[in-house]
Recover the amino acids of this structure.
């Protein structure tokens, strides 16, 4: 049995040589059917056939493939490192990028700038020839292996180079469009400004002067004041989380701003930023919380129309209405009571309503709701409830209610 200090995530240049060999790929394929409970036990058997480093790399790859199944439908055939998998674009989003580029870009190949392990590369190659740039040699080898595993090697040309240096030297090839995925971390620290991403937005704008059709993946919390003029901004949500924003330039800018949300039924898009109606907030109403991408894009008007709803404050992204209508882009709650913010009163009302399982939410409140949980004594009855801390104008409110189940 391995020691507690065994590093199962160390897939490096030496172990990749083995993993990509015929022997390594065959051994890795045999681990696909081994579940997590038996994977560490399998390590002892592997060490009888392979070196400790090779055996550890096989177990690491098996674990990464299991983790990657949430992002990649063919994860059991692909190759990853831990950090690269964390940063890779989930395949449904990558397929969405690729479809948008293929639909709106002029004919010709696409540059994939910063391909990583090939999340977007695989999707782009389904539509067009791809020229992929990656400066990190390990990630480049993994990307090459991944396109080979998916039968797409004939569609992709890889370049191990800094594409910004190639651009400056005039060596970047002509292409119909480019998709760039700049780094949004410095070490372990996340970056929140466009002038700090690597390469910075200035280099990406220089690229766009040569290739008009450019898409740039950026952080979902991008400050809208930093967004360059003459580009469209798409906020993309997957599994209920706004995962990214994409700056689309030239013919790729379908709208000034829009939200795209991946749902079990497929992608839904909202692009109408018309100011939504304002109206009252009263007990008995249904409160709808929009998907995070819709909130970032500010595309509330279509939802208000579909739900018969309105905002109760122009600065608060909650919709309220009289009808309990379900919609894939919102989660909904019935408001039972509305009170001014007061913890003692909240405690009394939770007891009176018999709430034993409590969900805490907020929008416009200056504190983290979970910080209050330890101060709230819940009922012993079996009722679930929700408290939403918010405001209307200068009034701080707490809304007590219940979550509506999706029909």
């Amino acid at each position: 049995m391995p020691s507690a200090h065994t590093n199962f995530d160390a897939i490096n240049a030496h172990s990749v040589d083995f993993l990509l060999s015929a022997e390594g790929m065959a051994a890795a394929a045999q681990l696909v059917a081994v579940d997590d409970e038996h994977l560490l036990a399998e390590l002892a058997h592997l060490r009888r056939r392979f070196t400790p480093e090779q055996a550890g790399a096989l177990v690491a790859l098996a674990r990464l493939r299991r983790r990657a199944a949430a992002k990649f439908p063919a994860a059991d055939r692909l190759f990853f490192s831990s950090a690269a998998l964390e940063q890779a674009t989930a395949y449904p989003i990558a397929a969405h990028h690729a479809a948008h580029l293929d639909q709106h870009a002029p004919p010709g190949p696409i540059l994939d700038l910063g391909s990583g392990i090939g999340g977007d590369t695989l999707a782009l190659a389904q539509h067009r020839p791809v020229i992929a740039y990656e400066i990190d040699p390990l990630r480049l080898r993994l990307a090459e292996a991944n396109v080979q595993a998916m039968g797409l090697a004939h569609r992709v040309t890889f370049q191990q180079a800094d594409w910004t240096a190639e651009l400056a030297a005039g060596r970047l090839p002509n292409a119909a469009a480019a998709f760039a995925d700049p780094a949004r971390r410095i070490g372990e620290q996340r970056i929140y400004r466009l002038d700090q991403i690597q390469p910075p937005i200035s280099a990406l704008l220089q690229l766009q002067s040569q290739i008009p059709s450019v898409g740039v993946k950026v952080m979902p919390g991008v400050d809208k004041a930093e967004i360059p003029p003459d580009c469209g901004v798409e906020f993309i949500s997957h599994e209920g989380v706004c995962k990214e924003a994409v700056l689309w330039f030239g013919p790729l800018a379908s709208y000034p701003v829009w939200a795209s949300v991946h749902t079990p039924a497929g992608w839904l898009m909202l692009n109408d930023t018309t100011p939504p109606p304002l109206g009252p907030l009263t007990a008995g109403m249904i409160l709808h919380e929009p998907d995070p991408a819709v909130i970032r894009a500010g595309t509330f008007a279509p939802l208000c129309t579909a739900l018969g709803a309105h905002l109760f404050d122009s600065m608060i992204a909650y919709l309220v209405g009289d009808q309990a209508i379900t919609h894939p882009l919102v989660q909904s709650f019935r408001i039972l009571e509305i009170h001014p913010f007061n913890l003692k009163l909240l405690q009394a009302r939770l007891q009176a309503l018999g709430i034993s399982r409590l969900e805490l939410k907020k929008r416009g409140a200056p504190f983290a709701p979970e910080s209050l949980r330890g101060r709230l004594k819940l009922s012993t009855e079996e009722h679930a409830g929700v408290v939403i801390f918010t405001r209307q104008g200068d009034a701080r409110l707490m809304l007590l209610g219940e979550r509506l189940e999706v029909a």
Q: What stands out?
A: The chain has three domains: 1-66, 86-268, 286-403. Confidence is low (pLDDT under 50) at residues 1-8. Residues 258 and 297 are 6 Å apart (CA to CA).
